[in-house]
Every structure is written in C-alpha cells, then in structure tokens.
Amino acid sequence: MINLSDERLCWLAVRDELDRRSxxxxxxxxxxxxxxxxxxxxxxxxDVISDQMREYAFAVDDLAAELNPAERQVLRATGQVPxxxxxxxxxxxKEAHRSR
Length: 100
Prior knowledge:
Layout: H1 6-22, E1 28-36, E2 42-50, H2 51-64, H3 69-78, H4 85-98
Antiparallel strand pairs: 1-2
C-alpha cells in the first residue's frame, strides 16, 4: 500500500468538489512537467489547471497541518475531511485575495 501524506489525502478528499467550484473562474495556467518517455528520454508534458485550483491546493496543504490527531485518523480510515475543512479552504483563499 502506498503511504500518502495527510496533505495529499486531504487534496484527494476535496479535489473534485473544489474543481466544480473553480470552473467558473476561467483563468488557467500551464504546468509543465519534465517526465520520461517510454524509451527513457526526457519529455515535457503539460496540464492546464485553473488559478483557482492552484490557490485551493495551497490552502488545502496549509489547513491539513491544522487537523488534530482524531481528524487525521478519520481521514486515513475513511478518506473524509472534517466538516470545517472545505469552508476553511474557501475562507483561506478569500483572505489571500484580500491581502493582494
């Protein structure tokens, strides 16, 4: 079994919902990743993700650190974040927008 970080588990738990919320934004940027081709040579692949999803990802990472031990245990057992998590992600992103 792959041992995923709490941050990654949180992201997987909320990604689809946050993706639905971000689609109205329309702003995107290209993420280029250096990968290996099947023949072993380097290739560049690109994924287009919205600016909003990038902001959500940072907020999720930050808030994952605030999970208490019981919440972490539930996350690992069920793949679910606590009820406060998604509203806190939204709030964190709004605060980041205001501070710009």
